[in-house]
Here is the input.
Amino acid sequence: MSVKKFGIWGNTDKKIFWEILPDILSWAMKKELVPYLTKRISKNSKLDFKIIQSRDDFNKLDFMLTLGGDGTFLSLARAIENRGVPILGIHLGDLGFLAKVTLKDLFYRLDKVADDEYITEERILIKSKIKKGEKVVEHISLNDFVFANGEPHRMLNTSVSVDGHFVGNYKADGLIISTPTGSTAYSLSAGGPVVTPKVDSIVITPTSAHTLTSRPLVVPGDSKIVISFSGAADSIRFVADGQIHEILNSECEVEVVKSDFTIPLIDFDDTDYFKTLRTKMGWGKRGEETV
Here is the structure.
């Protein structure tokens, strides 16, 4: 497919974003590509370019360029939803897991995309259905859903079942349901496993479990996970991708399944997931050993 139009989504709070934006727009002109800016970028810059007015405008674009960190990438992924627009993430700081292209390689990678010299990697999302009495609230997440007691220093009691089979009661500070993409985020810091993106699975990880027998659990990607709550908690916090918040109570029930669509990430033949692990996390290194 010949690339002709692309969108720019960025963290406008970062000074470096505004410093690099003119260079990207100049690059687009040289390549005879049409850039679309978000309304927020256009409003803050007064630039006279085409604007992404609604989510349906994503359908006009050949790819989306996101400039920021992994949080910026996550917000774009949720906005695109099932429209199948590939995302190229540029990290305006240290190397990220999602926005993994650095400023040093920015135009080298953009040239590759413009010349159709890239691949796409499909990442699964998870979907939640929160039952609040007669009301049902739905959210999607590329990384994770997190449950925690809204009252400080109080334990969260959750009951978890998978495909109708009771798994157990988790007494912990919280519970994380993550995708393979999210396995290197909060779940990992809570003791969960690293799951490579191509493994079709969902990870259930308690945070600071109050019993030694509560351990992370990996289940098939097509599983239906149901979480219910016990005790008198009336302020259970639910967070999607660290960005979307809901307040639940002990009467609520949450169903988590894999979304029926994926998000395509732009990647390249010469990149390596495990190299990213080693670079970002020092994975597999001992002492002062270098990559």
